Amino acid sequence: MKKSKKSYHHGNLREELIEKGIEMINEVGEEKLSLRRIAKMCGVSNAAPYTYFKKKSDLLEAMSDYIWKILAMELAKTRKKYENSEDLLVKLGKTYVMFFCENHEYYYFIISRSNTKIDLLSEFSKIENSNQSAFNILKSEATKVLQKADVPNQAIQDKIIAMWALVQGLVTIMIMNDITYSEIWEEKIEEIIKSVCIVK
C-alpha cells in the first residue's frame, strides 16, 4: 500500500512535486515551503513547478487532494474485495489505519490542515472533493449496516463519528514511538475494531 519514492519525471513531475512538498513540510514546516526549494529537490528548473501550481496555496491544496484521493482508491478496493463480507466495515477501518500508518508523512500533513471539509450530516453530501469521497465510502457502508440493524438516524450519525474517531485514534497511537504494546499492531487492528461494539 505504501507508495514507492521513485522519480516521477517523464510526465509525472506534478506528482513528484507534491510528494517532495509533503516531505519538506514534515521536515522543516510549512513556513519554509517554497516552489523554488521543491524544484531544487526534484532537480528541475525554478520555473518548472509553476507549470502546475501558480502559487504556494495551490500546491498545498493539491497535496491534500492527492493524499485523500489515494486513500479513497484504497478504500474503494477494499469495499470491492469484501463487499459481501460481514466484516466489510472492519476491513475498511483497517485499510484506513494501515494507509496512514504506512505513510506517516501523509498523516502528519493531513492533521495539520485547518481547511479540510467533510460533511458529517448529509446522507448524500454536496461537497465534491477527495476527502469527502474517502469519508463517503466509510459513511455509506456504515449507514447500510446500521440501518439494517434498525438504528435511529441520529444514532447512526453519532456511531459513524465514533467509528471515524476510532480509526483516527488507532493511527495516532500506532505511529507514536514511545507506546509500548505486547502485540503486533497490524495483527490486532481488526480485533480491536471488533471489540468496540459500534459496528454491531
UniProtKB/TrEMBL annotation:
Per the UniProt entry, the signal peptide is: none
At the top level of its lineage, which domain of life is listed?
Bacteria
Gene Ontology molecular function, alphabetical: DNA binding
Q: In the UniProt record, does the keyword Metal-binding occur?
A: no
Cite the InterPro entries for this sequence: Homeodomain-like_sf, HTH-type_Tx_Regulator, HTH_TetR, Tet_transcr_reg_TetR-rel_C_sf
Classification via Pfam families:
TetR_N
The record's SUPFAM superfamilies line, in alphabetical order, gives: Homeodomain-like (SSF46689), Tetracyclin repressor-like, C-terminal domain (SSF48498)
Q: Which residues bind DNA?
A: 34-53
Query: Per UniProt, which keywords does this protein have?
Result: DNA-binding
- Segments forming domain HTH tetR-type: 11-71
Q: What is the name of this protein?
A: TetR/AcrR family transcriptional regulator
